[in-house]
Specification:
5 helices; alpha+beta; Arc Repressor Mutant, subunit A
Length: 106
């Protein structure tokens, strides 16, 4: 696989991870409240802890979150470099305006 193909696969993995409403909600919550314990998401989303853990694993495997152990708890935060990378990538999908300074040949 070429470097471009590797990058595109990475970006696709990130976008796929964000494609689930619960995972997107987790990311939004982590952006507002970094260092959130995995156990705190069960009440927020009304899901069992194993389900939340699976969603967090998908986000972690996609490189979108970082973890830090605090005693027996694992705390999650948004990985800022991954979000910047994804934002830059999405920016390349924005159509460029047509050059209006060049006159058209009649």
């Amino acid at each position: 696989m070429s470097n471009v193909e590797n990058l595109e696969a990475r970006w696709a993995t990130m976008l796929k991870a964000l494609g689930h409403p619960v995972r997107l909600g987790i990311m939004r919550r982590l952006a507002a409240q970094p260092e959130t314990c995995a156990c705190d998401f069960s009440d927020v989303f009304g899901l069992q802890q194993p389900t939340i853990s699976q969603h967090l694993k998908v986000l972690r495997d996609a490189g979108l979150v970082t973890t830090r152990r605090r005693g027996t708890q694992i705390c999650y935060s948004v990985h800022p470099d991954a979000i910047i990378e994804l934002t830059d990538t999405l920016g390349t999908l924005t159509p460029r305006p047509a050059d209006t300074t060049t006159s058209r040949a009649s």
